[in-house]
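Can anyone check this?
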Amino acid sequence: MRVLGQLLLSFTLLAVLMNCGASSREATKASVNSRQETRPPSDANAKIVRQNPGKLVHVLVALCDNENQGIVPVSAALGNGEDPERNLYWGAAFGIKTFFTKSKEWQLVSKTIDPKYAVMERLVFKHRSKNVYLVADAYKGIEIQRAIADFLASASGNLNEAIEVSMDAKNLRLQIGGGADLLAFVGHNGLMDFSLPAYPKKQDDERREAIILSCASKSYFTAPLKLTGAHPLLWTTNLMAPEAYILKSALDGWVLGEDGERIRRRAAAAYNSYQKCGLKAALALFASG
């Protein structure tokens, strides 16, 4: 019954994202842009010098939100953009928090509630066999524009943040944002609904990679991501369900040093395994580079 319930949830999400806001984009665009004008500026700081204890992945998740995103509504619990524990992209069966917490490869190191403006929860994971850290931030659904802006600012090296976590009785200092080796955005493709006031340009010589799991992300993010200088390790070509098993499979390859094509194939295999869409269709859905 648990497997059946998870599959039903997956199919529900796929049905939602196949519409990707066709009926409500203009209304969402107006409301989000008006809110953006009153937000505090991003906490960008000085040019970063990486000093992380290992490789680091920073994942920015925009919580699914019926009221504030251009999607066909899901159930009230899954689509409450201020309830991370039950949210489709975070606390649900295939959400980032639940899926990675249950993973055998990743150990949850810390959890922080309201760590910064617009972020409701922050999780820090450590890979159990590799020297790799993963920091995942859950942005309020209403703050999807902020989440995408922060993702691009981080990918370009314009947004940097240092955090401290305790692990094995030691304090670790992690540099996230522009200090990460890999940046990932997970959620609804907000660029279908709005344009940012400006797109950040690469401001240093650091190499960063990017994963964008949202509907047709390659079409919408090509221009802004190019400005950041980040290499697109994995993104999508069409409508899809941005569920955590895709990111997990991609990271399985990334920590092993695999190239983009092998990572694309991992992602497609995982997507087909859960969505039963056929491997050929899944391969066509993902791209690298």
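Reply from J.R.: I decoded it. Residues 55 and 132 are 5 Å apart (CA to CA).
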